[in-house]
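Lecture notes, unit on protein representations.

Consider one protein chain, 203 amino acids long.
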Amino acid sequence: MKVRMFAPLFVLLSALAVTAADDPKMPPKAPDGWKYVESKDKAYQILMPTTTTRSGTRTSTSNRGGLSLKQQINYATLADGTQFSATAATMSGAALKGLTIGDVYKKMFEGMAADGGTVSEPKEFEIAGRKGKEVFHTAKDKSEERLVLLVGKNRIYEMLVVSKDKTKLTDETANTFLKSLFLNVKDATAPAEKDGEKKPEAK
């Protein structure tokens, strides 16, 4: 499986400072055919199907242009070819100075458009009890993508479904995955204020 990682992840947001979890809440029980996958830093969990043709986790780090980036990517491919990926990115550096939450969303969606194809107008999407954004993207290779983003002052979460069949983007399986993000710690991402107001902290 080729894991999609959008280039705008390299131009955004601030570093995460996760301390010991002090929120005792637990995620809902996993539905039949699903399991929770927890991040290495214990900050969040997502649902992944138990039956796949391929699945895994990878991490990456980079430093360039005044930006330090750390990512964890969980991915899975179903028998029908539908691909799921969940990316959590934490960042720091001088390149973040002056960016607002709205800037982050704008740059992410501009990056998708720059890749070619067509991008829908962003719509509000509730994820992890917070207000994220959702777009649909038809790529140059005609694959269909549905992307849900959650941006806070500390981290970006990207939940992505890719399929050649557009109906697979909105079926029950896709919705279960896209809505499954659970934050284990209160500061895994702070609730975003108005898009144009809250700023990531450059460190």
